[in-house]
Fold:
Amino acid sequence: MAVMNYAAAAATSLGDAMRRDSAVVALGEDVGRGGIFGQYRGLQEAFGSERVIDTPISEATIMGAAVGMALTGLKPVIELRVIDFALCAMDEIINQAAKNRYMFGGQSHVPAVIRMPIGIWSASAAQHSQSLESWFTHVPGLVVVAPATPQDNYGLLQAALQCGDPVAYFEHKELWALDGEVDPGQPVPLGKAALRRSGDDLTIISWSKAVHWSLDAAEILARDGIEAEVIDLRTLWPWDREAVFASAAKTGRVLVAHEAIQVAGFGAEIAATLAEQTDARVARLGGPRAPVGYAPVLEAETRVTPSRIAAKARELLAR
Structure:
């Protein structure tokens, strides 16, 4: 067990995987100097420039090359810097990586991890602050992962590299400095949610950085005697329906909170599934359908905060 931050946990996890398996490689902009957040720190020094590969500034080229690498037996980890830039590589992700196993009848597959940091990045404005995870959950053939803690960033990266399918891997742009204990021997399976806090009055479901806001909201509610249960999905596809349904049966009220725009966000899928298959009362909270502003006052209006989650929870309890 060691204490490290979210970025170091990812670098350590990738380094451990590269030592075990010579097929694991990393490629992308700035990976040689450790990545813009330090998530590749020390790896090129340890494994050389043939396995930690700096690329030109062309996301389509990076992703296209990675698909070819995967089809010839490598296990590429693709760095697209932030999800906003991944939009330049959508054809390669969706029409090539995600569909390959199906279109060739299982004769080939693309075991790739596509790292696309999500979320508002303070003072970085509309083109660097998006949360587009719902786009990728919509695509057959993709596994979708969103770790919220250093432990999960270590363990889920290991699981993603081992699953054999293309994984849309969403770290948060403002979690890199988050410290936590990391046990390399503790597996974190895909498709299993984590119970972050127990409670009997309502359930809050979230992922990525919004998990921490949900826990803070639960503390606010606890001051008024309201005990909220907080579930961190960790994997958006497949998502842990059993854990969510069990909590919904216990509390009878479920709030889904996420940073992404509320309209057509992945919270809508969870809410609709709960409405169809349980008797729980359901609500959701996401960002407004507006670009993230550069000015602090505008940026603040697009943020989902603990106080806003707590207020929405109170509305749900009053129904």
Notes: The CA atoms of residues 182 and 250 lie 31 Å apart.
